[in-house]
Request: fold
Amino acid sequence: MSQSPNLFLSVGKQVKDEYGRTIGRVASFAVTPSGRFDTAFIEQGNGEFARHSVEHLKFDGVEITLVSKIKSDTYVLCDHIPLIWRKDQALEELSRKKKLSPELYNELHKSFEGALTQLKTEAQLLSKKIDEEVGRCAEEVNALNHALIHLEIEHEIGKIDDKYYEIAFTMIQDSLRRTSEEKSDLEITKTKLSNTLLGDKPEIFDKTASKARESPKGSTTVYSAPGLPEPPVVVYVKEIGKTGI
Reply:
């Protein structure tokens, strides 16, 4: 897919992830000899630089979003694994109809089997990585809930005034919302990948309703899981400005 020739106009602009967290600012790009943008150099909040493939960045006007590599890789595997299966089934049908020699059938069948084995191995490794990320999100949600309770206690006994309590309360609630959304998103992604490995017909990612849409200037299209359910966590919520827990 063609790329925008003006990505350097994004230098200095802020980059966020799909859940609204600030990643950093675009510092520069690596460009191949043919003129294709390959890597983005992003200055993070701690002053360090991170490299991200341009394929995982979505440019939409002034907004730049770093799209989850896990979801991108899952989409590719959920597309390629059933495709190899269908090709192997078609090959078997052609063999049954005697439209190709046994030697050619065996050669192609082995190549499809090899490709399928490789893709399944990649899917299993990716599934483990998703589990690790889900666990990380669960731990973060638990820690944030503890932080919220301790904030309430300190506010209740008068150690924190209303102004700073409201600021901290909003910060923690925003983090809870983002992390819970990410956890649900990862769980949906894991389900799609598991269904593909089990041989079920994969549900196609909604290309029109996904959060990551194609840039008007032709940047890479990446798909995300649509219709996320409410986060399956209990978030401690109270009306800002009132006391009591």
Q: What stands out?
A: Helices lie at 69-96, 102-156, 162-198. The longest strand covers residues 22-31.
